[in-house]
Amino acid sequence: MSEIQSKTKQGANVTSAKKPAKATIKASEKKTVPVSAKVKEKNKISTPKINMDQYRQMVSEAAYYRAEKRQFIGGDPSEDWSIAEIEIKQLLHMQ
Predict the structure, then answer these.
(1) Which domain holds residue 76?
(2) Which residues of the chain have pLDDT under 50?
(3) Cα–Cα distance for residue pair 53/56, rounded to 1 Å
(4) Tens digit of pLDDT for each residue in 8-20?
(5) What pLDDT does residue 49 have?
(6) Cα–Cα distance between 63 and 81 in angstroms, integer?
(7) Is 31 helix (H, G, I), strand (E, B) or coil?
(8) Pairing relationship of beta strands 3-7 and 13-17 according to DSSP bridges
(9) Res 38: pLDDT
(10) Spatial CB neighbours of 15, under 8 Å, sequence gap ≥ 6
(11) What one-character DSSP code corresponds to residue 67?
């Protein structure tokens, strides 16, 4: 019997479908994951997704701060840029 007849307050018959019983999973049927896999997943660091414009902006700012730290005296802008690229790649786990 898939349907039940019931009466409303006004006395009209209303047909409603039975709700399906909730499925239960036995402990023996549960999928288990080895502890080492859980630890690896927990410790996994995701690399943020950035586009090239964002990457260049980050490198540009890092290079600027390197020059600012030495009060823009001496130094080489190309070297600042190269070091900044390395720092940003390390920061983003790109190496």
Answers:
(1) 49-95
(2) 1-3, 6-8
(3) 5
(4) 455 555 555 566 5
(5) 85
(6) 5
(7) coil
(8) antiparallel
(9) 59
(10) 3, 4, 5
(11) H
In a domain, 79, yes or no: yes
Cα–Cα dist 32/37, whole Å: 10
Distance from C-alpha of 36 to C-alpha of 11, rounded to nearest angstrom? 62
Q: One-letter amino acid identity for 79?
A: E
| pLDDT value of position 55 | 95
> Is the C-alpha dihedral spanning 62, 66, 72, 73 positive or negative?
negative
For the chain, the domain total comes to 1
At residue 30, the 3 state secondary structure works out as coil
Q: How far apart are CA 20 and CA 40, in angstroms?
A: 38
Q: What is the pLDDT of residue 74?
A: 93
Q: Assess if residue 40 is contained within a domain.
A: no
Beta-bridge partners for 5: 15
User: Alpha-carbon distance 14 to 9, whole Å?
Assistant: 11
- The rounded distance, in Å, linking the Cα atoms of 66 and 5 is 79
Residue 58 counted as domain residue: yes
